[in-house]
Design brief:
CATH architecture of chain C: Orthogonal Bundle
Strand content of chain B: under 5%
CATH superfamily of chain C: Hydantoin permease
Number of domains of chain B: 1
Structural class of chain B: mainly alpha
Helix content of chain B: over 70%
Shape of chain B: elongated
CATH topology of chain C: Hydantoin permease
Largest sheet of chain B: none
Distance between the termini of chain B: 40 Å
Radius of gyration of chain C: 20 Å
Structural class of chain C: mainly alpha
Strand content of chain C: under 5%
Number of helices of chain C: 14
Helix content of chain C: 55-70%
Distance between the termini of chain C: 29 Å
Radius of gyration of chain B: 18 Å
Number of domains of chain C: 1
Number of strands of chain B: 0
Number of helices of chain B: 3
Largest sheet of chain C: 2 strands, antiparallel
Largest interface: B-C, 37 and 35 residues
Shape of chain C: globular
Oligomer: heterotrimer
Chains: A alpha/beta (403), B mainly alpha (73), C mainly alpha (373)
């Protein structure tokens, strides 16, 4: 009797465990989901509201004329019924991001899934108004991931989401991969939500975010990376272009898989392949609060492309190009620092550096940093460039031809 | 819900109390009954959605009365 | 009166201690919320402070190898006072069990199964724990040895995978915060998790045939393994998350979310979730075992197997009443718990230790652990 009772009890327990722990309450079927690939935030006509646009990847429901499942909001304008649209656009206007998502879910037949969100883009106007309140939900929710890159759009973010690119039908996935590629060059190119949060919390630091722009029309649109947007607290106050961004990533170092170009006059032009780029910052403080920053830069390169330089022989040429490269790095970083000073934004994160190396003095200087001391920062760049190889050919073709 | 709770407690009594009674271990029966009563009370209160005062709050008031407690940020 | 007649070897005891400490290592949000990036300093101080306390526990084991802690209390303070203090300790153990069960429930609700009723999850967990407890300490601790090594592997793997996101500059500056915060955090680290080892004083009767040196070795080696995991986890979280550390309720989970080596090796936070579930489950089993033994000891019965289930069910219903939400839980862990737990983990054992030494207990020297021959 006891044995049978025990057996029944065991079977009962197993059944309960399987059903309860299998997550029946939380089950999500694939055809009931919208897989979000991009999130876009913009200003709305009502100043208290924002426009939330979600881009989802259209999962084909099966063979035959797929009329597309455009449910909720404005569709992305597919004309012929037989070609399935690659994306579905969902749009809502609401007070906050979570509200917008709720509106969209409510008016559609599927649930919204954020785990595959490739990128979050913010329209320029909204960035200028301030974005911190919209980021709260993204940090609080377990399912939205913190390593999704952020970007500001020069224009309206929803246009990017609706864009039909010549390279990829889904602009969200395209942007995600673009930033992943850029992050292989330098970590600074890709600002994830957690990086942005760390910059916001950091010591007197101006957060930055990549900026993209949409160009072209109709079916052949293109998205370009146009630089970085500079923020003060959480409001966008300006931007720097791609040249100036170079100065920024060189100051942070750890750049690889990219090139550096060196020019002298009009006709002499060399491109160096960067193999490794290391920057070591050091900070020293003087008594009146003046800050001196010293950047020790060590670059290992190889010669990529050579044009001109007719009057030099090969070994001298290497030396000469080396010096040009060193000067180029120095000038570029100093120029970008000037731009930062004009904007009164410490996006070089010198503030954090001082707070780490000289914490006691930083406590005194903190208040004066943004408006006074940052402007007086003296930067000394010590660049050492080494050109290791010259590629497959030893002499330039141009020189050979002239002989 | 309440039914499930009551049935659950009857099952517990069946599994544990009966062997104890058979072996006549009075002290164990006493221990069992004390906790049975406590668990049943809490279980029914939970099923009826009644707010139970928390023991930790009592400790908190005690230590604050003593004057030693860290401030919350 | 020996309640649980099972024997375990000294090595298994050591691994149980290590695994128990590792369980507490994953819940570093108590510490990191106060001293943020500098949390590694009070953690080191806490570890150092806990060493004499662990030595005191080991001496209890040497002097009273066959008696669990409640019996020691009765011997020291006499029957009446001893039983009253024993009652207090039962409350303490049940409280600890409930708090850990709450942690498991909250974590599962947050990260894994948001819609399943929390009561059901905790009930299922307790039922499995009760089943383990009924079979004695042998079964309870058997699971610990292998999983200690698995947890080590998980921590080291996570360190390797996050190596490209670690910034050692996040560890400095140091000593920039007001002194009281360091004191508070050191206090927290010493009490939760390190002095929770007091519960092992209820388990010492199960460890057989060890000498004095071996007792010291097992206590401290086990504790050392736990310390290493605690420091590694804390350092990993600080160096990866930097100044955003104090925002998160589960920093370990967030660190693992950020792993992104290529496209394939991302979203591995499930490892953290699995690891945390394993650890908390083990901790709850041990605490439930200790509570059951304590109750059986107080009422003077050896039938602990039959009261395990009802105590478990009591804990399931008692736990949700403790705090209205997780924010209150974290706040209380930072402000009140160091004192409440400190009372039971440090103050009372210390008092007992001193009084027992004065009374020259144990009277029977032959029962103490021997020197190694």
């Amino acid at each position: 009797m006891n044995k049978i009772f025990k057996r029944i009890l065991t079977v009962f327990m197993v059944i309960i465990s399987l059903t309860m722990l299998g997550g029946c309450w939380d089950s999500k079927e694939f055809n009931e989901l919208f897989v979000i690939t991009a999130t876009a935030l913009d200003v709305a006509e009502d100043p208290k509201k924002i426009t939330v646009t979600l881009q989802t990847a259209n999962i084909p429901q099966g063979a035959g004329p797929s009329g597309g499942n455009s449910s909720g909001g404005s569709g992305s304008g597919g004309k012929s019924g037989s070609s399935s649209k690659a994306v579905i656009i969902l749009k809502a206007e609401s007070q906050s991001l979570l509200d917008g998502i709720m509106h969209i879910s409510r008016d559609s037949n599927r649930e919204v899934l954020f785990q595959h969100n490739q990128i979050r883009i913010i329209g320029k106007e909204l960035a200028q108004k301030g974005i911190i309140k919209h980021l709260d939900m993204l940090m609080r929710d377990t399912h939205s991931r913190l390593e999704v890159p952020l970007a500001v759009v020069d224009g309206r973010a929803e246009e990017v989401v609706k864009a039909k690119l010549s390279q990829d039908p889904n602009s969200g996935i395209f942007l995600g991969e673009m930033f992943r590629d850029l992050s292989r060059v330098s970590n600074e190119y890709q600002v994830r939500l957690i990086d942005f949060a760390q910059m916001l919390i950091g010591e007197s630091v101006a957060p930055i975010m990549p900026m993209i722009k949409l160009s072209g029309s109709d079916d052949k649109q293109e998205i370009h990376f146009v630089g970085m947007a500079v923020f003060k607290d959480d409001k966008m106050i300006g931007s720097i272009d791609t040249e100036e961004t170079l100065g920024l990533i060189w100051a942070f170092g750890n750049v690889k898989n990219t090139n550096m170009d060196v020019k002298e006059e009009e006709q002499n032009h060399a491109v160096l392949r960067i193999k490794s780029f290391k920057t070591k910052p050091e900070v020293s403080l003087e008594k009146n609060g003046k800050v001196k920053i010293n950047l020790d830069i060590d670059v290992l390169t190889g010669l990529g492309e050579l044009k001109g330089f007719k009057e030099y022989k090969m070994e001298q040429l290497i030396e000469h190009v080396k010096k040009l490269a060193e000067e180029r790095i120095k000038d570029r970083i100093n120029d970008t620092l000037l731009v930062a000073k004009q904007m009164k934004s410490d996006f070089f994160r010198f503030g954090t550096l001082i707070s780490q190396k000289h914490p006691k003095e930083w406590k005194r200087l903190k208040k004066r940093w943004e408006n006074e001391l940052f402007m007086q920062v003296e930067l000394n760049v010590n660049a050492k460039v080494k050109i290791a190889g010259s590629g497959e050919i030893v002499q330039s073709l141009e020189k050979e031809e002239k002989k | 819900m309440i039914l499930i709770v009551i049935v659950g407690f009857i099952i517990i009594a069946l599994i544990d109390l009966i062997p104890l009674i058979k072996q006549r271990k009075t002290l164990a029966i006493v221990a069992f009954s004390v906790f049975f009563a406590l668990a049943l009370t809490y279980g029914l209160l939970n099923a009826f959605d009644v707010e139970v005062p928390s023991i930790m709050k009592a400790w908190k008031s005690f230590f604050e009365w003593l004057g030693i407690a860290y401030k919350v940020e | 009166m020996i309640i649980d007649k099972s024997h375990v070897s000294g090595t298994r005891f050591m691994f149980t201690i290590a695994f128990y400490l590792q369980s507490s290592a994953l819940l570093t949000s108590f510490i990191s919320g106060i001293t943020e990036q500098e949390s590694w300093i009070p953690a080191i101080f806490g570890i150092l402070l806990s060493l004499p306390i662990i030595y005191m526990f080991r001496t209890f084991m040497v002097k009273f190898p066959d008696k669990n802690f409640l019996q020691v209390l009765e011997m020291t303070y006499g029957r009446v006072l001893g039983k009253i203090m024993g009652l207090g300790y039962i409350g303490f153990f049940i409280n600890l069990t409930s708090l850990n069960l709450l942690d498991l429930g909250e974590f599962t609700k947050l990260a894994i199964l948001p819609l399943t009723p929390q009561l059901l999850i905790t009930l299922l967990c307790i039922l499995v724990c009760v089943w383990a407890v009924r079979h004695g300490f042998n079964v309870v601790s058997r699971y610990g040895s292998i999983f200690t090594l698995i947890e080590f592997a998980i921590v080291i793997t996570s360190l390797i995978l996050l190596s490209n996101q670690i910034e050692f500059s996040n560890l400095i500056p140091v000593f920039q915060l007001p002194l009281i915060k360091y004191v508070q955090t050191t206090h927290i680290v010493t009490v939760i998790p390190l002095s929770e080892l007091v519960v092992f004083l209820m388990i010492t009767p199960c460890v057989k045939n060890i000498s004095k040196q071996q007792a010291t070795k097992y206590w401290f080696l086990g504790a050392l393994m736990g310390f290493i995991v605690l420091m590694l986890t804390l350092l990993r979280d600080i160096t990866v998350l930097g100044n955003s550390l104090h925002l998160f309720s589960l920093p370990g989970m967030v660190s693992l979310r950020l792993v992104n080596l290529g496209e394939a090796l991302s979203r591995i936070e499930i490892i953290f979730a699995v690891g945390l579930t394993l650890l908390l489950f083990f901790k709850i089993t041990i605490l439930l075992y200790v509570s059951t033994i304590a109750v059986a000891q107080l009422f003077g019965t050896t039938q602990y197997k039959n009261i395990a289930l009802i105590i478990g069910v009591f804990v399931v219903f008692y736990a949700p009443t403790l705090y209205p939400n997780s924010v209150a839980h974290t706040n209380s862990a930072r402000t009140i718990e160091p004192f409440v737990h400190g009372l039971f983990e440090i103050v009372l054992p210390l008092l007992t230790f001193i009084i027992a030494a004065i009374l020259k207990l144990p009277k029977d020297k032959k029962s103490m652990l021997k020197q190694e021959a």
